[in-house]
Write a structure and sequence with these properties.
The protein is α+β, with helices and mostly antiparallel strands. 51% of the residues lie in helices and 23% in strands. A hairpin with a 2-residue loop joins β1 and β2. α1 packs antiparallel against α2.
Length: 71
């Protein structure tokens, strides 16, 4: 993970991204702290929104090979 010009760069395969999303959901479901649960939910929603968009460059990320860039 790198931060460059207010952009978070994650180098992940599609499978790794799916696993990250699944892990966020599981952690959120088992988190007793409500504030932390909301943070995990927000991260989950942001990642799933990106993967659901047909043209990701119009929303908040660009996809090239196995790198996802989140702004």
């Amino acid at each position: 993970i790198r931060n460059h010009n207010n952009t978070l760069h994650l180098a992940l395969t599609d499978t790794e991204l799916d696993e990250l999303i699944d892990t966020l959901a599981a952690e959120s479901n088992h988190e007793p702290n409500r504030r932390r649960q909301r943070q995990l939910d927000t991260a989950y929603e942001a990642l799933t929104a990106v993967t659901d968009v047909l043209v990701p460059t119009r929303v908040c990320c660009t996809r090239s090979k196995s790198t996802w860039d989140f702004r």
